[in-house]
């Protein structure tokens, strides 16, 4: 829990850097906004429109990087804004982690037993990790949606509650899983890449029962690589989920695919936009993976040894 508290500012900075890359070229939007004096519905229009945004609203300053984002967010909104979305993050942490690692271990064990595998092939952790991630992501997706919206701009819980209520009333309960597509495209390959690299390093260095230090090191490397390769899908996930509570002023087009959104973002803002937030994401994910896998391996070995000693003492 303390670790989550420490890395939440990195999440906020990452989402702000990604959110500013979002382009609204085909429609106009209304979104939640409040400065204490005016109504909280703000409409923005394109630069080529004969309309313009209200004079009292000015978009937040452009963020040029991780450090710049930390400074500008703190100055404009106060240091507490760096911990926006902390409660849903904490609520996600336990069920998401428990479901993921439990399903991963169960799938791995069942596959070995069913196919009578004496040695673990490298493809098995890839499949098990991907399948476990699908289940875990689907379970916590509504909380992920709320967290992303809270971290994208300064909003209180009343505004978030109104946005959720409005979205469910208009689009139904299934709208709380908005952004699940790019989230799965981010997290399933992430798990596959992560577990492949981690198991490869274990085999490469002959670490069938890895030490805590090795697990930490291998987990950090594997997590860093996976975070980098899946970042474009993370950007699109952010772009979709920050639309919670927004209303389209002009005619709205049908939902567009993740591939279309990736291509559109690349064509307009360039390849750098696809990797927005790379520094805070990598800095957060690499140690997170290191801590989780080393704790997981240590706990697994501890209980295996405990069960073995307990079984031996009965004879």
UniProtKB/TrEMBL annotation:
GO terms for biological process: mitochondrial transmembrane transport. It is a multi-pass membrane protein. It is found in: Mitochondrion inner membrane. Keywords: Membrane, Mitochondrion, Mitochondrion inner membrane, Repeat, Transmembrane, Transmembrane helix, Transport. The keyword NADP does not apply. SUPFAM superfamilies: Mitochondrial carrier. Solcar repeats lie at residues 1-110, 120-204, 210-302. It comes from the Eukaryota. Belongs to the mitochondrial carrier (TC 2.A.29) family. PANTHER family: FI19922P1-RELATED. This is Solute carrier family 25 member 40. It comes from Nephila pilipes. The gene is slc25a40.
């Amino acid at each position: 829990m303390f670790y989550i508290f420490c890395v939440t500012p990195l999440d906020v900075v990452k989402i702000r850097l990604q959110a500013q890359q979002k382009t609204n070229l085909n429609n106009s939007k209304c979104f939640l906004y409040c400065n204490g004096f005016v109504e909280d519905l703000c409409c923005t229009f394109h630069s080529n429109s004969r309309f313009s945004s209200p004079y009292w609203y000015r978009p937040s300053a452009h963020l040029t990087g991780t450090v710049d984002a930390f400074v500008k967010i703190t100055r404009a909104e106060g240091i507490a804004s760096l911990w926006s979305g902390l409660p849903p993050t904490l609520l996600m942490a336990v069920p998401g982690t428990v479901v993921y690692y439990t399903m991963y271990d169960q799938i791995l064990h069942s596959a070995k037993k069913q196919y009578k595998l004496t040695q673990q092939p490298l493809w098995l952790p890839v499949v098990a990790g991907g399948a476990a991630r699908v289940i875990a992501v689907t379970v916590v997706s509504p909380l992920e949606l709320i967290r992303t919206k809270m971290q994208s701009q300064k909003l209180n819980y009343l505004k978030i509650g109104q946005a959720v209520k409005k979205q469910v009333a208009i689009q139904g309960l299934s709208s709380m899983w908005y952004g699940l597509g790019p989230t799965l495209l981010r997290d399933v390959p992430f798990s596959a890449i992560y577990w492949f690299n981690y198991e490869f390093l274990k085999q490469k260095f002959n670490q069938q029962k890895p030490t805590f230090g090795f697990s930490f090191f291998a987990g950090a490397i594997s997590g860093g690589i996976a975070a980098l390769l899946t970042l474009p899908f993370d950007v699109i996930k952010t772009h979709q989920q920050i639309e919670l509570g927004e209303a389209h002023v002009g005619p709205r087009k049908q939902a567009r695919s993740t591939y279309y959104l990736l291509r559109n973002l690349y064509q307009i803002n360039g390849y750098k936009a696809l990797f927005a937030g790379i520094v805070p994401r990598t800095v957060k994910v690499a140690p997170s993976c290191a801590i989780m896998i080393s704790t997981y391996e240590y706990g697994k070995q501890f209980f295996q040894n405990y069960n073995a000693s307990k079984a031996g003492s009965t004879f």
